[in-house]
Each structure stands twice: as C-alpha cells, then as structure tokens.
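Suppose a colleague, Dr. K., hands you the sequence of a protein chain of 169 amino acids and asks what its three-dimensional shape might be. Before reaching for any lab equipment, you can write down a predicted structure in token form. Begin with the sequence itself:
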Amino acid sequence: MQRTYKTRPYDDRQSHCMSTEPIAPAPSDVRPEVRFDTKIAVLLRDDLEPWQRLNVTAFLVSGLGATVPEVVGEPYGDADGVAYLPMFRQPVLVFEGTKETMKAAHERALSRALPRAVFTADLFATGNDRDNRAAVRAVPTAELDLVGLAVYGPRNGVDKVLKGARMHP
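The predicted structure, expressed as tokens, is then:
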C-alpha cells in the first residue's frame, strides 16, 4: 500500500518542528485486518533479569518454529534481491507471571496437549544443547523449575493456558 503524507506544524511546547502524518488511505486501499485463529505466546517468570528474559524468549520460540511448520511464513527479500530467512507469520505475544502462574500454565498446556517448549532455571548453568536436554530430562514434570514456557494453538486454548498471566511490560 502506498501512503501519502502531509506536513503540518507540531508544537510539543519545548520546540517547534515539522512532522509528517499519514493521510488516511482511500477506501479502495484499505486491507482487512488480519486476525489469526491461532496464537503464539511466551510466558516468562517475573523474577528474571532482562538478559534472561531475552535469552529465554529466543530459545523458546525457536522450538516452535522448528517443529510447528505452519507458524513459519515465506522467506523475505529486499528490493535488491537479497534473501532473508522466513519468520513467524503471526505476532508472538509475551506475558509474565509468578512461579505459581508458570506452574499452572504448564499444567494447563499439558492437559490441552498444545505444542509447547520449556526453559528451566537449570538451563542458565549449561552451555550446550546436549546438556540442556539432560538437565530437563533429569527432573520429573511436576518438579521442573520453569522460568519460561512457549505455547501455540487455538486462540481460546492459549488464552486459557495463560489465565492469570499479564502482558510483559
């Protein structure tokens, strides 16, 4: 969609500057809003450090992309013909919650048999994929010290799994 811009003065009471503001597209240019029947969500424990939140999120969503092919869109390319990897075809919503919220969400994800990925506190001490898998395998399901959970599935099912969680700030 091509946008047309108009320039108007803007006064933020600290300085005077010109800004651009898009003009609403003509009705024929309007594309319908895309609403997905499914949801990709990540739940992070609320006591993680900022670097841990980013690391856990990246690891968790990689599991979904690798095993649930329908979440991945088409490859990208720029105007010069440079190719880029495909990404998720829909947004990833990130939530946070307490340790108790995490445990309850994990139990609900299991009971609904939703595709899921977990990240436990033990994984912060490992340095490779083999050790990561061994750390999770060594702990019974009910005793996992979960710090992150990614789930994918029907919107209403994922919403029910995340009950009690709040959007990440």
